[in-house]
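=== RUN LOG ===
request id: a7f3
mode: sequence -> structure
chains: 1
length: 469
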Amino acid sequence: MTEADSTFESDKNQIKIAALLVATIASFFTPFMGSAINIALPTIGADFTADAVLLNWVTNAFLLAAAIFAVPFGRIADIHGMKKIFTYGMMIFTISSLLCALSPNTLTLIGARVLQGIGSAMIFVTGLAIITSVYPPHKRGKAIGINVAAVYVGLSLGPVLGGLMTQYLGWRSLFLLMIPFGLLVIMLVYWKLHEEWAASRGEKFDLIGTILYSLMLFLIMYGFSSLPETSGIIMLILGVVGLLAFIRWETSIESPVFNVRLFKNFTFAFSSLAALINYSATFAVTLLLSFYLQYVKDLDPQMTGFILVAQPVVMAITAPIAGRMSDRSNARNIAALGMATVTLALFTFVFLDDTTPINSIIIGLAILGLGFGLFSSPNTNVIMGSVQPRFYGVASATVSTMRLIGQTMSIGIATLVFALIIGRVQITPAQFPALLESIQLCFIIFTALCFMGIFASLKRDGSKGNEKN
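=== RESULT ===
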């Protein structure tokens, strides 16, 4: 190898490392922010004297905005450049974090959270796509494994670190922490990533499809979160009608905002469905166990956080290994094994009662973390490897959208069960038996969902997840 070739290879490796670093940092602190704020809601409510319904919108506004804008920005990134959209997303996220920290009231905070959700959407859909563009197929799974591990660690450590920071530094410190990280990522992008990736450059942007998609998703997600109210049912029906209209429009134009024909690819379709099921069945686990440990077991937030950290520790160890395995062996089977492991872990929580030993909960969380790690990296590798490079942005957006919709559905299922069994009342010792019944029912539903997800993981073609649509 000549000196020029050696220099070229060194530059390529630096670009790969820089791309993985910026995407992984972003993949950690954006979901970390999304989950950490849940622990801080009671403190925010006390500061602003806000009711529970209004406080819920501090979380829901972020999830809604991120889900609604993920697919459109995925398409924009394919047309105008992934690095550009990623950088703008980091800027919006960083500025909105400052606005959140300075918010004088709940409504201002909710508005800033909408901006933060938009910035997060731009980051989600491009970070994974950049990694996929930079790394060759035979090394992609390992890189995706590291990235997925960062997402899950962020989601899982959010309540733990968020509780500690809120208790000792105040809830505004959560948003202030995002600012130096955001500036660091922006500096790394301008310093190391000089290449741009835009596989669909020159194609038209589908504005009508974007409007239909946004309205449809808003109606479905907002309607589901409003169940069992009549308004929620009406919005869900309108959302389904909007979905049909969206599909019809997208199949009739040359440059759709979301190429629904990708779902004709069984690998892409069932892997995306498996991701949706996984998030729908697992995102509320931290919330449910937090209630169980603090109310039923009478533990303080700090001890609760230390118990819940068992899951992300095991997951962070497993995900990169599983990603590397998916480069070399059958990614479908690894993902299905992960889903089965998650199902087993959720099933153990069905039998929670006031006498359940803490050690049993920690073991269940460790099994859950193992399942997360085995499922997520291979499944994401399958999704990204099943489409052509020109659709990387949309595929990355699909992964993010499945996560966000799944998170909303998971919280929605828990909220619906709580509303039906406990009612809309403050939880006191008198409600502890009903609370325990609600938690058990939620885990029964989540176990059934994940059991079906095993078959979705298996129902696809290919061995290494690298087929092209």
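=== NOTES ===
DSSP finds 16 helices and no strands in the chain.
The chain has two domains: 3-206+253-458, 207-252.
=== END ===
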